[in-house]
Design goal:
Quinone Oxidoreductase, Chain A, domain 1, alpha/beta
Length: 322
């Protein structure tokens, strides 16, 4: 079968190649899934560059989020069968097929296509852990979402509105801001110079919760428009700069800085992790959320798909369709 293979760690993702590989023999508790769509996430790029927390052994196939059809199951598998449409997670999604522990597979709800299913789990689980578990966002609070046009940003806008928050979204281009205005954000601002506008919108108090997947200058400015008792949820650093702060700032202004690692949260608290997945899947099943698909690429153009994230041109999710 065909798969994208990383054989060297490099800042230049163009070193990735499309190759013929063979999957190992199916283990009793595994399922083999024919991939119909694989989501492209920023951590995929960081993993290839050796800049992500998880550093797989070389060679490896990137991608950790996909959807497809079960084509074979191990002898001990009972929760899925051949022909089921499923969401799957785990390294190796940029391929025509992958093998994963069957216990981690979830059936795709009716009415949800493969691309939407592939682009769902990471974004909405991240938003849920950030806003519900860590920041404990309450109805009526002000939520400031940075990088709001990206996959994890749109998920936070969706969830913030469902939780009853007043959502301020920031984005780097007029095209993205125009999209967000029609998407449901209460207010939309540029991703720089937002401090005074946020303070004005919130009656001088500042945002109660700030959702930040960007870092860098965006984080620095956020600390100047956060409410007393506010919470900044740190999602990542797509700006490329990891910011720092003197601890006297949160002391004096009475706010909290919260680290968000949705996968690790589920590993540390398995029961809550299962509850998180159940909660976001219910939103998908009930039609309350649908990932916005920006673009679709064939497997042979996986690097081009990844570059759209590097170029900051994406609104929503990009998927690879083998």
């Amino acid at each position: 079968m065909k798969a994208i293979v990383c054989r060297e760690i490099s800042d230049e993702i163009g070193t990735l190649k499309l190759e013929d590989i063979e999957l190992p023999a199916l283990k009793p508790h595994e399922a083999r899934v024919r991939i119909r769509a694989a989501a492209v996430n920023f951590p995929d790029i960081l993993t290839v560059q050796g800049k992500y927390q998880h550093k797989p052994d070389l060679p490896f196939t990137p991608g950790s989020e996909a959807a497809g059809d079960v084509i074979a199951v191990g002898s001990a598998v009972a929760n899925v069968q051949a022909g089921d449409r499923v969401i799957c997670n785990g390294l190796g999604a940029y391929a025509e097929a992958m093998q994963v522990p069957a216990v981690g597979l979830h059936k795709i709800p009716p009415g949800v296509d493969y691309a939407q299913a592939a682009g769902f789990s990471v974004a909405y689980l991240t938003a849920y852990v950030a806003l519900v578990r860590r920041a404990e966002l309450q109805a009526g609070e002000w939520l400031l979402v940075h990088g709001a046009a990206g996959g994890v940003g749109l998920a936070a806008v969706d969830l913030g509105k469902l939780l009853g928050a007043k959502v301020i979204a920031t984005a780097s281009s007029e095209t993205k801001r125009a999209f967000l205005k029609g998407y449901g954000a209460d207010h939309v601002l540029p991703s720089t110079g937002f401090r005074e506008a946020v303070k004005s919108l919130t009656g001088g108090n500042g945002a109660d919760v700030i959702y930040d997947p960007v870092g860098g200058d965006v984080f620095d400015e956020s600390t100047r428009c956060i409410a007393f008792g506010g919470r900044i949820a740190i999602i990542g650093f797509t700006s490329g700069r990891i910011p720092s702060i003197g601890v006297n700032m949160p002391l004096i202004k009475g706010y909290s800085i919260l680290g968000v690692r949705a996968g690790e949260y589920g590993r540390r608290f398995p029961q809550k992790g299962r509850e998180n997945i159940t909660a976001i899947r219910k939103l998908l099943e009930d039609g309350k959320v649908r990932p916005h698909i920006h673009a679709r690429f064939p497997l042979a153009r996986a690097v081009d798909a990844m570059r759209t994230l590097q170029d900051r041109t994406v609104i929503g999710k990009v998927v690879i369709e083998p």
